[in-house]
Amino acid sequence: SVDNNASDFAKSLKNHFLDGFMSWITYFGNVFVVLIVITSLFLWEEKKREWIPTLWSSFITSIGVGLVLKWIIARPRPLTEMVYAITALNYSFPSTHATAAFTALPILDKEFPKFKWFWIMFAVLVAVSRVYIGVHYLSDVIAGALLGYGMGFFFVYIEDKYKLFRKVRG
């Protein structure tokens, strides 16, 4: 299958440098800090504060939907020796990391188009790192990326059309 071929390819690339780099990239705190906290700070500093609730709403909603899907689909991870305190996190599909990484992209693309490729590269690196370290299949990260991006796009559309958060702010 494509998933197994991608996993085998990732294993063939294993080396000391990539192991360290991908481990750092895949750490959820890095994803959260770079794509959510730093993005919020960018939005705040650039006086685009009305997008911060949209960013956080898309992030929280996409993670929630992803966790529900993990629980419903219950696909085992490639590495079964990993055990998480939250049962849904033991499952592989979709990748929560990829979901989180891609959910910010529609807002970033809309408000900071100059940085578009940096954000896309970071999100892709997060997704690739999950396959590289062996905790997800390729289809997991693709599904997570689509879920995150779709949710971010949905929240941007809703804010553009209905100005929900601007109305709340007054």
Tally of separate helices: 9
Q: Give the tally of β-strands.
A: 0
- Report the end-to-end length measured between terminal Cα atoms: 53 Å
Instruction: Give the DSSP E fraction (strand runs of 2 or more residues).
Output: under 5%
Please trace the helix and strand order, writing H or E for each element.
HHHHHHHHH
Write up this protein.
The structure is a single chain. By secondary structure, this protein is mainly alpha-helical. It has helices at residues 2-12, 16-26, 28-45, 52-73, 96-103, 105-111, 116-132, 138-162, 164-169. Helix 3 runs antiparallel to helix 4 (52-73) and helix 4 runs antiparallel to helix 5. The radius of gyration is 17 Å and the shape is globular.
Kindly summarize this structure in a few lines.
This protein is 74% helix and 0% strand. It has 170 residues and is mostly helical.
